[in-house]
Structure to design on (788 residues):
């Protein structure tokens, strides 16, 4: 009997192009495929420096570019024990489809996690999703028509940018300062848009330990934000992956839990408190919105993995999940302190950076003449990587900023990585000095090179520079 | 059946592009019935080559190592036949400054330029010469690293104020940078296969100001016109120039020559030549070959046949 598996293929099934007498691959295929692409692909952006970022994953690179939690400290024995218990106790269930909104056992765990931050929800009101990223996608799917406005922070979470773009949203970014999103600027922007007859569909914010900015929205701004959205009947998408990873200071309530939080869609995730590999996040929010998101999720993936939902539920049952979060906090707090100390040692006075009270990231601002995308090429030569700031903006800003992650690599690597970046920054500062020193002498009209950083230009976060700098302020706390 | 090692990836900034080119080349070689082994180039390259003992190495590496003669030198040392240009042509083409000097010597028009390494600025006060350079080149000035492909690190300086920052950016990619007169006009690419000139391709970016890294490699981001719709004399002249460049730089196998056509002046100028042009779905050489009736598989077959020790 001979079976020609090419013929056995059901219609529409993809065909492998790597072997056998496949079709002739010609460059005309390009035009042929391109002719089929949806209009939205023209504005779909994969990250501008995607190819450069791929290089940061090389094993000989110290990568401060990731956003990765440290999963190496998770006890292998518990992992194995929990997995076997799921395999034995829930064989059929874990291998089966589940309800779109998620398994009840997991939704109870989620209510417990949210209660830890003082936010109390009914487990029945939770929509389980495939990672927090899916919430962003579902919110856009539910609310955004092409051309609709989304308000985001400046800088914003780089991973949200491709989602916003693929729904053809127009994104307006509001500056951050050390107290989070500038609500005065937000209100002025809303007024301006209203005058143009436009109403944004939602405001996207990471209020606590912002990615990538590292800042936290103050209590007065939180209150004002929920007031503003209630007055104007807009929605807020509150993205809160890091809230439980606080290393200093007092916890602040979530926007969702505030008076007026009925215009807030809350996004949570297990990625940073347990594992991004389980791909589980969740949303709670106004019921009509969540119902539409549920329908959207049916279309996207029917349901999230039953296997990992049961794994997480079993994990919560097996002991105090808070202990693992606390152990992570210990590790990350030390790493953050090492990074802050290293920045103070290795970066010159022309650079500023944020002092996050939690989370995973520090945002560094360099002199305005340094382009961090180009700098990354130079840094890769020194086997070190970061995320160029431009990826956190849709409007070309952020060219002189970078995001550093302190959760994914050990203390010695953080020290060495920051030292190497500091070195290449210093090189460029010196070179610029050499280049402009003579230019200035010859062309009195040219603007002098800023010996001190121009706060307006150099700092896209508009942070008060002095206390952020070397030797100053909170950057040098005792480890 | 020929045993072909496809060298791809590597540590250059164009690694991802090279992986795409390499994968496509491998597919074609398999369809042609060759015994194909892909090698992601790294520390163990020599060991891997000795293990695989290929009849031919297909160099699908772009940028550093693969396009600057380094890997070619290694293949010669090992006595392995390889595709494309030899060591000397790679050296001449990979450094835009050397390439431009060879073109000037051969009477081939290339935009006016000045080139410096970092030492010139640090030790010789070359910055003092910038005003004179700016006066001669006129703004906007294009600032680019001498050794980087795929438009990485290229900046346009609109005024004197932009020049230092643009230089700092370009020096991120290597020790030598060039300041070049900006030629406004249309982007043309003329590919050659074994000294045969293929139809001219014009790349028309849909949005960006110029043909940058992203628009080069993302399907649908750039419109390609092949054969380029140009006045008859211009097409003939572009083809002629490409062949002159091929000869002046000593290319072999295949290459792509990038030119600018300024409609106002009717002038054609040569920007650079690439000894390992892209082989991705959006790459220009395969497109030109296809237009000439040479399909991708046939093209790859020809390139392998032209391999030399």
């Amino acid at each position: 009997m001979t079976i020609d598996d090419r013929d056995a293929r059901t219609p529409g099934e993809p065909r492998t192009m790597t072997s056998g007498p496949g079709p002739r691959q010609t460059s005309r295929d390009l035009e042929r495929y391109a002719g089929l692409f949806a209009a939205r692909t023209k504005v779909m952006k994969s990250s501008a420096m995607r190819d450069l970022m791929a290089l940061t994953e090389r094993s000989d690179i110290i990568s401060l570019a990731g956003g990765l939690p440290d999963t190496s400290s998770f006890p292998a024995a518990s992992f194995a024990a929990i997995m076997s218990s799921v395999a034995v106790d829930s064989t059929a269930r874990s291998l089966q489809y589940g309800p779109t909104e998620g398994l009840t056992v997991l939704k109870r765990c989620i209510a417990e996690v949210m209660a830890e931050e003082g936010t109390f929800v009914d487990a029945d009101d939770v929509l389980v999703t495939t990672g927090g990223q899916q919430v962003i996608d579902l919110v856009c799917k539910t609310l955004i028509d092409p051309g609709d406005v989304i308000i985001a922070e400046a800088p914003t979470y780089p991973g949200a940018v491709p989602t916003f773009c693929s729904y053809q949203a127009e994104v307006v970014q509001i500056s951050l300062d050390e107290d989070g999103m500038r609500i005065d600027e937000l209100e002025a922007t809303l007024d301006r848009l209203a005058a143009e007859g436009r109403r944004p569909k939602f405001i996207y914010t990471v209020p606590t330990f912002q990615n990538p900015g590292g800042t936290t929205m103050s209590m007065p701004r939180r209150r004002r934000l929920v007031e503003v959205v209630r007055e104007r009947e807009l929605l807020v998408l509150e993205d809160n992956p890091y809230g439980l990873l606080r290393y200093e200071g007092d916890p602040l309530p979530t926007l969702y839990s505030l008076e007026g939080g009925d215009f807030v869609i809350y996004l949570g995730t297990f990625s940073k408190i347990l594992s991004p590999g389980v791909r589980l996040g969740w949303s709670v929010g106004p019921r009509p919105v969540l119902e539409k998101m549920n329908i959207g999720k049916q279309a996207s993936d029917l349901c999230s993995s039953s296997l990992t939902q049961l794994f997480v539920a079993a994990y919560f049952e097996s002991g105090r999940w808070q202990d693992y979060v606390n152990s992570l906090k210990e590790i990350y707090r030390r790493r953050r302190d090492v990074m802050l100390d290293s920045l103070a040692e290795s970066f010159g006075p022309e650079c500023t950076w944020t002092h996050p009270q939690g989370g995973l990231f520090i945002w560094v601002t360099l002199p305005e003449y340094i382009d961090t995308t180009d700098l990354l090429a130079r840094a890769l030569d020194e086997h070190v990587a970061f995320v160029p700031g431009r990826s956190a903006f849709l409007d070309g800003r952020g060219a002189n900023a970078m995001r550093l992650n302190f959760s994914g690599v050990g203390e010695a690597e953080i020290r060495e990585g920051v030292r190497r970046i500091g070195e290449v920054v210093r090189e460029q500062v010196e070179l610029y000095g050499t280049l402009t020193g003579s230019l200035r002498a010859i062309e009195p009209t040219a603007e002098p090179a800023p010996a001190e950083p121009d706060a307006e230009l150099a700092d896209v976060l508009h942070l008060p520079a002095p206390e952020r700098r070397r030797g100053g302020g909170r950057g040098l706390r005792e480890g | 059946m020929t045993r072909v090692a496809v060298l791809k990836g590597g540590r250059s900034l164009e690694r991802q592009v090279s992986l795409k080119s390499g994968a496509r080349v491998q597919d074609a070689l398999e369809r042609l019935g060759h015994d194909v082994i892909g090698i992601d180039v790294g520390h163990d390259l020599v060991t891997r080559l000795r293990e695989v003992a290929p009849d031919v190495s297909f160099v699908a590496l772009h940028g550093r190592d693969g396009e600057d003669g380094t890997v070619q030198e290694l293949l010669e040392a090992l006595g392995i036949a390889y595709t494309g240009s030899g060591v000397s042509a790679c050296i001449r083409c990979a450094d835009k400054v050397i390439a431009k000097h060879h073109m000037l010597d051969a009477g081939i028009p290339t935009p006016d330029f000045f080139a410096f390494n970092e030492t010139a600025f640090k030790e010789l006060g070359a910055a003092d010469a910038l005003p004179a350079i700016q006066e001669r080149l006129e703004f906007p000035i294009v600032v680019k690293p001498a050794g980087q492909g795929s438009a990485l690190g290229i900046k346009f300086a609109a005024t004197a104020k932009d020049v230092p920052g643009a230089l700092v950016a370009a020096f991120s990619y290597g020790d030598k940078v060039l300041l070049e007169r900006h030629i406004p006009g249309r982007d043309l690419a003329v590919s050659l296969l074994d000294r045969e000139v293929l139809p001219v391709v014009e790349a028309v970016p849909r949005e960006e100001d110029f043909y940058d890294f992203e628009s080069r490699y993302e399907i649908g981001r750039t419109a390609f016109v092949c054969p380029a719709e140009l006045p008859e004399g211009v097409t003939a002249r572009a083809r002629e120039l490409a062949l002159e460049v091929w000869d002046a730089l000593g290319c072999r196998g295949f290459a792509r020559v990038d030119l600018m056509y300024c409609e106002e002046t009717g002038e054609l100028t040569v920007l650079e030549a690439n000894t390992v042009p892209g082989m991705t779905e959006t790459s220009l050489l395969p497109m030109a070959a296809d237009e000439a009736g040479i399909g991708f598989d046939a093209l790859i077959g020809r390139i392998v046949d032209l391999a030399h020790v």
Observations:
- Chain A touches chain B through 48 residues (CB under 8 Å).
- Residues 84-318 of chain A form a domain with the Aspartate Aminotransferase; domain 2 fold (CATH 3.40.640.10).
- The mean pLDDT of chain A is 85.
